[in-house]
Amino acid sequence: MNPGTVMNTETQTQELWQRRLQLFPITAEVRPSPRDGSPALTVGGCDLDALAHEYGTPLYCFDAATLDAAAEQYRRSLAAHYPGRAAVTYAGKAFFCKAIAQWTQRQGFWLDCTGAGEIGVAVAAGVPRQRILVHGVNKSDEDLDAALRHGEIIVVDNLAELYRIAGRTPALAELPDLWIRVRPGVAVDTHAYRQTGQEDSKFGMSPLEAMEAVRFCRAQGLPLTGLHFHQGSHFHDPAPVGPALDTVLDLVAEMASATGWQPASLSPGGGWGVPYHEDDLPHPDVDAYVAFVAQRVAAGCAERGLELPALHLEPGRSLVARAGVALYRTGGEKQSATRRWLPIDGGLADNPRPALYGARYSALPVRAPQRPVADAAWIAGPFCESGDVLIEALPLPALEPGEVLAVPVSGAYHLAMQSNYNGARKPAVLWLADGAAHVIQRRETIADLVARDADLPG
Length: 458
Hints:
Layout: H1 10-21, E1 29-32, E2 39-43, E3 46-47, H2 48-55, E4 59-63, H3 64-81, E5 86-91, H4 98-106, E6 110-114, H5 115-124, E7 132-135, H6 141-150, E8 153-156, H7 159-168, E9 177-181, H8 207-220, E10 224-228, H9 241-259, E11 265-267, H10 286-304, E12 310-313, H11 317-320, E13 324-329, E14 334-335, E15 340-343, H12 353-357, E16 364-365, E17 375-380, E18 389-396, E19 404-407, E20 428-433, E21 436-441, H13 446-450
Parallel strand pairs: 4-20, 5-6, 5-12, 6-7, 7-8, 8-9, 9-10, 10-11, 11-12, 15-17
Antiparallel strand pairs: 1-2, 2-3, 4-13, 13-19, 14-15, 16-19, 17-18, 20-21
C-alpha cells in the first residue's frame, strides 16, 4: 500500500488493521475494555488505555512474553546450527536499565556494556563479572578502569587503547580477556549512519593493525582470546556477512601462520533487523540469519584448517524492538493546505530515529482500533523542530483529542537515545506480564531536570 492511500472498503480496513497488529508484541489482542466494554488494544493481558490513564503519557511498555520468545528463538537456532559452542550477548545500547540487565541474566546471556555508565548499571543490577563484555570506540580512563574492574571481556577498538590497557595491568590481580575489533571493509545494506564495517569506518582496527595487536599481546603476555567485527545495524539480508567472515577468517589464518595464535572466540556482532511498518512485513527470519552465519564460520574454518571458535552473536534490536510499545495522547487535529496533522505529546525527545534515519513507523488507536480509516495523517510531536514528525502519511481513523495512540516496535533505540529537549521529562517504562504492569523506570520529574544545576555565582 502506498503512503497516504485511504481505505474505501471495510475489507481493506480490516486487512490493514490485521497487518498492523502483526507489528505489536505477540500477546497483543483487542478485548472489551473493563472501563466501558468497547474494544481496546491489550498487551500482556493489560489494557493499554487504562495504563495510559494510570501512568500518564508518553509511556513505554515492554511485553515480557515477546522478550522471552525472541531470546528462545536465538537459543534454539544456535543450538541447532552451532551446537555447544555459541553464546548470545545482549547489546545494551538498544535499551538498557537495571530490569533489562536482570532479564539478560535470567536468559543466560552475556551483557554488552559501553562505557562506565552502562557498566555501573549492570553492576547495580547484580550482573556478575563473568557475564559483562565491554565495548567502546574511544574509552576514557574511567571507562577502562571500570572495564578492567568489572568486565570479563574487553573488546579493544584500537592500538592506542591496547597500549593503555597494558599500562594498567601490573596493578590488577585478574585481567579480563581481550578481543580485537577488526574492520572487515564490508558493510551491510542499511542507513549510512548505521554502517560500521566499511574501510573508512571509525570502528575497529585494520587487518595490519590487528596483526600488530596480536604480536603485542603475545609479547606482553596479555590474555588475547577473541576477534570481533560488526558491519551495521538493522539489516535484513545476511549475505554481506559472508564476505566479511571470509576476510576475517583469512586474517585468522594469516595470524595463525605468523604468530601461532588463533581466537578461541569469534563475534560477527549483531544488527539483524525488524519490521517497523506494515509494508516491511513479514518479520525477518532469525533462524535463517543464525544458520547462515554458523554454517559460513564452520565451513570457512574447515577450508582454512582453523580450529572452530566459540561463536558469539550480539543481538539487541531483534530481541527487544517488537516487545516495546510507545503510548502517546493526541491533541486537536489540524489541517494545513495539504496535510492532516495529528499532534501527540511525545516524539523527537523520546524517539529521534525518524529525524536521524528517516525511520518509518506505524500506529493504531488504542480504543476501537478497527474503526474505518478517515484519511492519511502526519503524526507530529510538540517539540520546536520541523523535523519532529514521528510518522508521515499514515492512514488512520478520525481521532478525538485525548485519545491514546499506540506505536509498535518501540523497544530499541528510542529510550536509549532520548533527550530532555525543550525540557521534556523522560517517560515511565512498564514491564507487562500475566496481566500485571510493573514500573521498571519511573517518569522523570522537573526536580530531576534541575537537580544537577547550580545558581549563577554572585
